Every structure is written in structure tokens, then in C-alpha cells.
Fold each of these.
Amino acid sequence: MAVIIKIGKEANAKKVRLEMDLRKSVNGDLMIFDHGDIDIVLSPSKNKVVVFPKETMSDLVYGAQNRLFAHLRKRGIVVAESIQGGAFYGSLEGMLEESADPDASAAKLALINIHNFIEEERPYFEQTEAIVSMADDELLHPDKTHSTELGEVPQEVEQGSIRQGYVRDPYSLGYMYTV
Amino acid sequence: MKIKHNKKRNTAFVFESLLREATVAIIKGDTDKQHKVVQIIKKHFTADSELKKHLECYRSLYENQSLNAQISEKILTEAKMASRLIDPHGLFKKQTELINDINTTLSPSVFSNFVPNYKTLATIDQIFCDKLPPKTRVMLESTIVENMTKNAPENVANEEIDNTTVSCFVGKFNEKYSETLSEEQKQLLSHYITSFTDNAVSLKMFLNEEIVRLKKVITESSTGEMFTEDAEMKQKASQIIEKLEGFKKAQINDDILLTVLKTQELVKEMSNGSNN
């Protein structure tokens, strides 16, 4: 059996493998769609991270944006004072820190940390999606206790709380108060 | 009298639903499900089975067969006769087994599959049913005959557009708009056109940068001599900046795009004016 021996600086290099729903735009920006509430754009050329709401802006979306930037700030990936609202609807942006180590790219480190953040949050937003989907299912495919057979529902002899011919039905009382 | 149509007992509907289930499984690459559906079809629709005979009765009455009325009526009579010759108890039993197999092996959602000719299948099912009053039966039969005589709709295939046509179109477009549209306007339009592919994220990103640029240029220009001398122009410039600021709170729509396009044009004119 052939034995491969790696010598030099690359020998101990660890490979990082990330699985994400990600798309690279023509200008090199990385658009990350994994999160349930927000779309994240990592722009290595502009050295910044911008976060947009997936649909409409809400407290839930702002919470996710805030948590992402807190996560990146705590790990020294973004400049704390650069975090601000963007010019477009519901966007929040922050500048990446300059990397002191020429071998460690700030954008790559940001990508790894964004991946970690999404993995931390995944149980929460997947649970929300599951609840929404369950609510839809309950409406569209109700169980036997919450539905009737399709087709003609047999007529009951007596329906509702008003009984015909009963002395206290609304019409009899009406006669009582007739002047 | 309205007869209730039970689609689970409609042999042709169940067969078509199974075919659609198999097609979806093949497209998705779900070989396990595909195998299960094929096994059910092979098991229940064998050549000499009651279900297969019943299915053939339905199939002979499908729409768009381009037949004349006389032949269609003959086929209808024969199909009715053939369906009456099938043992109803045996057929009911086989249908129950098929429904049970689908529910247990696959899922009851198979019966919710969309079948385009569902209406025709339901009509045929009612014709095969003996409970229908004569008038309704004749009306339904005439509908079926009418459908059978129709021609199959022609597949209007989109004409293939070759590279020469595309390059000619692009050339003409560029010729017309290359001078009227600025580089930024072209970028905005191209992001807008392709925005359906990525939840409009690249468009949002572009606008996020572009609005900042536009605000910066207008703010810088408004401190110039021309603006300080003319109070109305200064007021208009501040109104534009206010409008651009308002995009923080507004969802992306055509009005916003139009405003940005117009502002880009204005900024272009302003920078040209300052150069001249």
C-alpha cells in the first residue's frame, strides 16, 4: 500500500468543510439563504456583512440580525462601532475587521462564524417553520374529530338552541309585549 | 338528483393519480417510492383483472379523440355494455384492496394528486353508475360524445430562438439604450431582471450601496454655489434626500425602482453639469 507523506507548512493544515445554501454573485459577494428569517450577504470586496429580512421587517427579524452581529462582534469579526442600519429596507450592516495575519482572510473567518451562528440558530427557526407548517396542515387536512365526511350532511330534526313550538321561543315572547 | 362521486372508487382517476405519483418520484430521484408505485400498478392492473377491464372502459371514453359523433356514440354504448359485464362485487373488492394498498404502502395524499381530466373521469363514472336519472344520463352522455369528437389541442411549441436572434436583439437594445442609460442604471435593471433567482438579495445589496452613493453625491452638490444661491433648488435637493432616506422603511417595489432610476439620471446630469 502506498503511503503519502506530506512535508512542510501544508502538512498539518486542517480543512474546514461547510455545507450552506449559498450563492456567489458576479461581483464576488456571497449570499447565504440558510437562516429562516434573514438573508446574509458577505462582501469580501467591500469588506462588510449586510443582513436583509427574508420577507417583511419585524421584531423577530431584528432579533435575528442583532444576534448575528452580537455573535460576530464577540468573536472579533466585525468592527463594533461600524454596525448600523443600511440605506435599504430593514438592512443592517457592519464592516469586517482587518486581518493581522496575512494567511487568515477576514472574509473566510466571517464565513465560518456565520455558519456557526446559523447552526446554533437552526433548531429555533426550524421549529418555527414546523409549527407554521403544522398549523397549515391542521387547516388543510383536519383529523376526524375536527371534520365531517365530504358530501351531504344528514339533516337533524332539531337544529340549534331555539325550539319550535316552545312557549319561550322569541316569537311567542314578541306577542306578549305587543301593545 | 345529485349522485355523490367517490374518486377513490373511480378506477381511472386512481390509475392516473398513481402515474403522476410515479412521475414525481422519478423526477425527484426517489427510487424507493417509484418502485412501490410500479409494484402497486403491476399487482392490481394485470391484463385479466377486473380493474384493468374497468380502466379500459374509461379510457375508451377519454376526450380529444378526433372521432365523428356516430362512432363516438357506438363506443359509448360498447363501453357501457362492457362495464356492466364486470362483476360489481368483485370490482368493489379489488378497488378496496387497491385503496388499502395505496393508503398503507404510499400515502392517502396520492388521492389528492392533480389529474387534469378529473371532470371527464367523474362524468364517465356517473354514466357507469345505474342510479342516474335518464335525463341526466343523456345529458352527460352527450357531453362525453362532444368531448370525444374534439380534436387534440395542438402543442404550441415555443419557437427556438437561435444565438443570432439573441445577439441581434441584444445589439439593437444596446444600440437604443447605450447612450440614454447610464452604467448604474443598466446595472440596476439587470439586477432587477434577475432578482427572481435569489430572493432579490443581489438587487437589495446593489440598492443598499447605490442609495448611499446617490445621497452622498446630492449632499455634496447641494453645498455648491448653484444650490446656495437658489433656495428652491436647495429645498428640492433636500426633498430628494428625504425621499431616499424613506426607502429604509419601504419594501422594494416599482415606484422605488423608478425613483432610483430618475435620481441616477439627475445625479448624472449634476455631475455632467459640474464638469461642464
Amino acid sequence: MIEVRDLQVRYAGRLVADVPELDVGTGECVAIVGESGSGKSTTLLSLLGLTPDAEISGHIMVCGVDVLTASPRHLRAIRGARVALVMQSPQAALSPATRLGVLMRRALKLHGVGKNHRLDEIMADAVEAVMLDREILRRYPHEISGGQAQRFAIALAIALGAEVILADEPTSALDVTVQAEVVGVLRRLRQERGLALLLVSHDLALVSTIADRVLVMRDGAVVESGPAARVLAEPSHPYTRELLEALP
Amino acid sequence: MNPNEAPLRRTLPRIPDRFAAFGAVLLLLVVLASVLAPWLAPYPPNEPKPLEQLQPPSAAHWLGTDGVGRDVLTQILYGGRTSLFIAVAVLAVSSLAGVTLGVVAGYAGGWLRDVIMRITDVFLAFPALLLSLALAVVLQPSVTTVVLAIAVTWWPWYTRLAASVAASIATRSYVDAARCLGVPAPLIIVRHVLPNSLTPVLVQLSLDAGGVILTSAALSYLGLGAQEPTAEWGLMVQQGQSLFTTNWWVVTFPGLAILVTAFAFNVLGEGLRNALDPRRAVR
Amino acid sequence: MLGYLARRLGQALLVVAGVVVLTFVIMRLVPGDPAVAFAGPKATPEELAAARERFGLDDPLPMQLLAYVRDLLTGDWGISLRTRQPVRDDLYLAFPASLELVGTALFIAVVVGIPTGVLAARYKAKFPDFGVRFTSMLAVSVPVFWLALALQLIFASNLGWFPIAGEYDSSLDTTSPLTLWTNITIVDALITGNWPIFTSTLQHLVLPSLVVAAYPTGVIAQMTRAALIEEAGQDHTRLERALGFGETSILTRFALRPALNPVLSLIALVFAYAIVNGFLVEAVFNWPGLGRYAAASIRSLDTPAIAGVTLLVAVVYVLANLVVDLLQGFVDPRTRAR
């Protein structure tokens, strides 16, 4: 699904992320952890070409598309439809004057998913799959809660038929109880639909419940990587140990 | 915002906005030309020469002569002095009066603020030119009239601006501290509120200058401003309009002078706003 | 929504009250004795006294103010010293023509200004952007009266493409008279299918409305560009990009609607500005609107007429602002909450 080699992202000459190897296979969940400023979000966003001001070198292959050399049209084709993005502040991510249903319908039409009469069904199914009432499609972003907005973002991914979800700190802006809901939804989707997940988070506790493999980043560099169970139980790098010790 | 997180907005470049620089240079030329008029003008100002009237642009008169034989270029250079004077006077009067009222309103709060802001609203409800017109009709036409008539419509903007700045500063903790210590209100206003209001007011001034030039030209065009023999661009257009069809230069050049000056002020104003007030900046 | 409406209405009424007082004050400042102006310079002392009595000029000022307000509310806006007609009737005749001119100008401004602003935002920092910025800056810097004269000279006098002055060819009044519905010539001509007058008015409208449209077009283009650029920097555009939408699509389908908010309120501002600027244009093109009426009133120091025009324009302005505020509440659901 995702194959990254020798990725280097620079802003104004400064090296912000340096990832020699990153793979996400079908149905896998990979987590990138680290503190703020470690370059993990940048890495995630660069996978879809969403870092317009950055100088990127290396090799990024996402769902068969070479992101760095693909034409804008090819890139737009895989965005949303094959690879979906879930952002940190859910409500800020939604256009304020657009009803949720309208946004979803436009995205579906953009990627040619389903015919007109089927669209309503697809939308309703997607929304219910994330435990939301289909009535929410008539709402505006400021009328729903953070947790609902986050789940809606996931519903977008489902409706579009995405196979991979890139989640950038999906729970950081949410209350603890709500976090559990969102994580629950993600876990269920992985089980039921085999969705692959690339998760960026500074919350190690969350990561330990869901990730298959973990990458630990610090100041732009990858300090450790491997199966989640091993890395979190017997970390080999001192920094990883620090992070684990900081857990309550 | 974390420097390592991918910034969504383009980082604002440090190179100066070329458009604004262009405006600044243009304005400098206009100001210099007006100030140095006595040295730059080829002829003495306001000297009617009946024998040389309505001559098209030539080597002797680069911009031609007007209906009574005056050199158009000379008149424009001297007219610039009048226009710039009016603009400066209007802005000075309206900002001083407006900011004073606004600072008092914003700092004092309560009913005083409400009263002042309502009065401001009423003045703002009058379209500026209309109010200026009505006033200019009442007073004798002159440069002073124009300055007063326009200032009367312009001060409300400064009051609104100063009131909102003053209100936000009045709630800051260091002001509370000063108040507790017994520092008298006027001193607080001068020491804390005024310096912080300076930048937005400056930005507003630069943005307004172009509008003032246009309004004063319109009032003079209607005969309510500078009178003979003072040279003024709007007046020149009015004097030349009946002769326009056969003597295009008499109206065209004064109008261009107004256009260029207002343009320069507007461009510079926008550039200053982008530079000094990053919240409202649009690159 | 209802609460918002009530609040804005209350504020508007307060402002109108203030405007009335201000107009009254200005009126009292106009030089010349209104009694003399009405009765004429050769009036006898008795006639002058009668005039004073009639207009209540000997009463104390607060009483005069109250009488003035009462008269306004009952529809008595005074008698024009110049036309000898009720000011209200004069305004009723003149206002639609100004509305016609300003309405056309604003239509042009919106239809040209908004897409231009979108274009500039889409190609920001590239050639179309610079072009739009430069042109719109010129448009807001041009003196209206001069532009009117220039266009009239070039396109009407010299090239003969458009008529020089007037609202329509008055000889058509005999050959195909117009039935009045709204009193707005072009609208009435359209409704009644009076094509000769319709085309004539259209031809006469072109130049003056273009002149009046210059400033609003520039300002609207600038504001649309600025608001759109601002909106395009918001986080939601990142999600839209991540969903596969292209840049132009993001601008027009997702960023434009919230960006139009400030543009809408701008339209109210330029509406009043356009009416007053229209006065200058009406003078040049001999357009039979408020401008021509105001100019004549000013020349003859016709106080009631001047007051009437001032009041009308100010009230229209307040109304325009109110309408725009209400529209904003409708377009942007977040405004209603305030």
C-alpha cells in the first residue's frame, strides 16, 4: 500500500524529517510516535503531497502511484478515494458554510463513486458505520462535536472506499472518553474491512492498543522501528525508553 | 505553531512588496513636485494671459494653456500644494478629534462609551460626500470649508478604531495594576493606550489619504472648495469642462493628476497595512 | 434569526432618529431666511410674517424639531422653495432614476468584481493577480466626475457610439409612451414590452453606469481577492485537497461562500457611496435623478429640498446596511449566533 524509501523533507533548507524506510501493508496499522516537533506530521502529509512549500527527496509509493513524480491529476485521483486523511482539529478541517452531506456528496461525485440514486445509500451506510446518525449529514460543522466531526472524517474515507487512512493526531484534540470512541471505530474498521492505518500520535498508550508496528521519531530522525509489541515492551533506544517512562 | 509541523500557509516572504514600493516612489515624486513647485514651474502661477489662451500642448507649454491663458503644468504643480495641504489637514483634524473621542470612549466604557458610539453611528450613517456637501453649502466656499466639511465625515472611523483598541487595552492586567496604584486615568491613557493605538491609526491614515484627495477634488469641482485664483485640480476640471470637447488638455491633465496622486496614496496605504498590521495583511 | 432581526432593526431605528436630528441641525445652519426664500424678496412684511407663521419659524428650536419629526412621520417633507411642489413628490419622481443608475452600476460591479477577485486569488502572485490588483487600484483612485467627462467625450461626442446625455430619447414619449409601474424606466419598459424605450434607456445607461460602477468594481474585486486568500489559508482547505479536489474547485466551491461574507457588507457600503457619486455623474450626463435635483436645490439654497434629499439618502443607506446584515445572517449561519 505505502512504500517509502530515503524520504527527506526540508523547509527552507532545514531538514525536518528523515525517514529511511516506512512500509504499510494491506490491513496493517503502523504508528509514528514522538514528541511535538519530531517531524512525524510532516512525514505523514508528504505522503499525499500536501506539503507544498517543502523540498522533498526520496521515493514515495502510495497505492501504486509515485507521489513525487505523479501528475497533479493522478495525485488527486488517489487522494480521498484510495488514501484518506483524518486531521487533528476535526471541526477546523470542515468548510464552515458547507453541510456535511453536501461535502460528502461532492467528494463522491468527484471520484465517480456510485450512481445518483445509490449515493444516498452509500452515504448513509458510511455514516452509520462510524456510529453516527444519518441525520448528521444535514448539519453544519459548527453544530457537531469534535468526536462526531472526527468520526465523520472517517466516514468520508469509508464512503469513498479508501483502503488506507492517514491519521494525524486524530485524538489529541478530543476529550478522553471521546478518544476511546474514535479509537474504537478505527479498530472495528480494521477488523471488519481490513483498512490499513498509518497513525501519527504522541499518545503511546493509544498506540499500544492498536498498532502492529511502530516508528519512533525524534527531531526529524527515526530512532527506532519495529513490531509494536517488541518496541513498547523492550525498547532498544534510550529515547524510546524515556517516552515509555513518561507514561502515567 | 510548531515549526516542524507542516505549515499550511505560505511563510510570508521577506522581500518588500514591489507594488507598495512603486506607490511610495510615485507619491514621493508627487510630493516633491508640489513642494518644489516654485522652482519647477516654468511660469509664475495664476497669471492669466488672454493672448495665450487655449493653446494645445507644445514646447513652450508642455501641457498647454487653459481658458485664461495660464500654463497648465504650472497650475497643476501649484494645485498639488493645495490638494496635499487639504489632505494633511483633514487627516490631522479627523484623527486627532476622532482618536481622542475614541480613546475616551473605549477606556471609560459604560454609558459614556455608548453615547459616543451612537453618535459615531449616526455620523457614519451619512454617506460622506453628502454630509460634506451639505456642510460646504452652509459655509462659504474655501479651502478651510473643504477641510472642515470632510473632517466632519471622517472622524468617526478613527473613533471606532481607537475605541476598540482602547477597550482591549483597558482590560489588560498592567492597566488594572496601574489603576490600583492610583495612577490617574489621563496618565494611563497617554502612557499605555495611545502608543498601542498608534499603529492601527497610522495604517488607517495611509489608507484614507487617497479617499480624501478624491473627496476634496469632488467638492472643489462642485465649486465648494478653493476659489479663484487658487490653483486646485478639481477646480481646474470644473473650469475646463465646458471647453472640453475642443480643448481636451484642460481637463485631462488635472484629472490625471488627481488619479495619479490618489493611486499612489492608495497603493502605499495598502502596502503599509500589509507591513504594519499583519492581522489584516493580504499579500 | 428573529431575535437577530429585532436587534438590528432597533439599532437601525436609533440611527435614523439621530440622522433626523442631524439633518434638522444642518438645515437650520443654511444661510438665508427661509421665509424670504419662500415668499420672495419683494414680499411685504405681512407676507413674511405669514410665511414665518406657516413654517413655525418663530417657535423655540426644540418645538421646531418636534414639529419637523411629526411632519416627516406623517409624510409631510416640506415644500420645495424652488419647484413649489411637496418635496416628497419631487423625490418620488427623482429617486427611481437614481436607483436605476446605481442599481445597474452595482450589478456590473458584482458581476465583474467577484469573478475578477476569484481569478486574482486563484493565480495569486502571478500575472493575472498583478493585473487585477493594478486595475482595481486604478478603478478606486479615479475621480468620478473626470471619468464621466472623459468617457462622454471619447465615446459619445467623438465616436458617437452612445448618446451624450439624458435617460432616454424623449421624442419616444410621444411615439410610444411608457406606462408607469415602478417608476423605474428600464424596469417598466421591460415589463410592458415597450422595446423602443427599453433599448433607448439601455443605450443611455451604458456610459453613466460604467462610470458609477468603477469604484465599486475595484473595491469588490479587492475584497473578494483578500477574503478568498484568507479563506484559502484555513485548515479546511487541507482536507479538501486531501479529498482530491483541485485548487480552483476548492476556491470556488468551498472557500468562496464564507469569503463572500465581508464582500456582502461591502456592497451596502458602496451602495450609498455609489448613490452620492452618482450625483456627480448625473450632473455630467443630465440624468434625471436625485443628483440633478440636489444640484438644483443646492444652487437655489432650497433648504427643505436639501434636507429631503439628505434624509432620503441617509435612510436608504441605513436600510441597505440592515438588508445586508440580514443577508449575512442568512448566508453564514454562524452570524446568527452573535
